[in-house]
Amino acid sequence: MVQTDLMEYCKSKNIMLTAYSPFGSPGRPSELKRGEADPHKLLEDPVVADIAGKHRRSPAQVLLRYHVQQGIPVIPKSNKPHHILENTKIFDFSLTEEDMAALKGLDRGWKACILEEIKAHPYYPFE
Ligand SMILES: NC(=O)c1ccc[n+]([C@@H]2O[C@H](COP(=O)([O-])OP(=O)(O)OC[C@H]3O[C@@H](n4cnc5c(N)ncnc54)[C@H](OP(=O)(O)O)[C@@H]3O)[C@@H](O)[C@H]2O)c1
């Protein structure tokens, strides 16, 4: 989910946006996954793999770098020390404009919230 409109809105109001589930939340229970287009296999995506190979980084590092390079804090989750360490090593390389465009091209056009219940909230922002 690229959500350029949300990013631009937050920037215009000086609101700091945080990116959660940067790997598509692959450990989510299957009932919370939304079919084949669901991004839960983002870490295995061939576009991400190509960019990772080019920079000699892992797919996880590429996906995290994508956010921080746009000035967006990102909060991956892991319970494995080697993954946590790997996920911190994203400040010593840069993605090219071409890489960033390719990653943006993975957009599924989805909005942030998958919880139907909150759509009735008076301040639901994703219409
Ligand atoms: N505020 C909200 O509404 C909201 C909503 C959703 C999520 N969140 C927060 O966002 C954070 C992350 O979300 P998430 O857990 O849904 O999804 P995520 O960070 O996209 O994915 C976590 C999964 O990625 C794996 N992983 C982590 N680092 C890896 C690496 N370097 N290589 C390979 N696999 C790696 C983890 O497995 P291992 O443990 O095996 O490494 C785990 O299965 C959490 O803190 C969550 O609470 C907030």
**Main sheet summary:** 2 strands, parallel
Secondary-structure-based class equals: mainly alpha
CATH uppermost class: Alpha Beta
Please give the oligomerization state of what you see. Answer: single chain
Total count of domains: 1
- What's the CATH H-level homologous superfamily? NADP-dependent oxidoreductase domain
Mean pLDDT score:
90
What is the end-to-end distance? Answer: 15 Å
Hetero ligands = NADP nicotinamide-adenine-dinucleotide phosphate
Contiguous helical run count: 5
* Second rung of CATH, namely the architecture: Alpha-Beta Barrel
What is the chain-wise order of helices and strands?
Answer: HEHHEHH
Radius of gyration: 15 Å
Number of strands: 2
Widest sheet, order of strands: 1-2
Content of β-strand: under 5%
Tell me, what's the shape?
globular
CATH topology: TIM Barrel
